[in-house]
Design brief:
Helices cover 31% and strands 24% of the residues. By secondary structure, it is α/β, with parallel strands linked by helices. The protein has one domain: Purple Acid Phosphatase, chain A, domain 2 (4-Layer Sandwich). The longest helix is centred in the middle third of the chain and has 27 residues. The protein is globular and about 50 Å long. 37% of the residues are buried.
Amino acid sequence: MRLLCVSDLHGDAEALAAVLATAERRGYSRLVVAGDLCFPGPQPLETWRRLVRHQALCVQGLADRALATLDLQGIRAPQSEHERARLDRLVEVRRELGDLVLARLARLPLMERMPLPDGGELVVVHGSPADPTEPFTHEMDEEELSALIGDDPCDVIVCGGSHVPFERQVGGVRIINVGSVGEAVCGAGRRHADATFLDLTGGRLRVEQFAVPLDRAA
């Protein structure tokens, strides 16, 4: 079985389509998404529709929770033009998605667990097992990473949140941050989308992280 693992789509349906087209040429069994699906756009509803068509396994990210549950009447007034623009966009995305999709986002689990061929366990989470809102980052040392693993018994963690892909081994736990599809950290005026293949065949876990170039400039 080969999993296509992505995260942090942020409503960029075109970037997601580019990743899926690249992955389909190689073949994969299931699409796994580690949260932050639809906000801020530019195509939140089409992004959601693509995930549904591909029967993706999704967990909830911070942006998903905000879209689905934030009480707009209870938040403080925007303190800057940036905050005002983000709040306005939140309202627009909610309107575009509609109540049924928002309800689905609200029900997404914070973590999903999958058995591995060798008898181990894989966890999918946006942030980390100890705190689904707190992501692993490539700059953390082993002590910091271990604290975010906590006492979770998993063997492999697939996560996002930091927008930078990396792989680390901490004790007996393998951390695989799959980066970002919609807001990957890029340079030189070019954009790409991050993705990761996890090949679970033959009793071993093989990891292949890759970047898909996107046509439009940043």
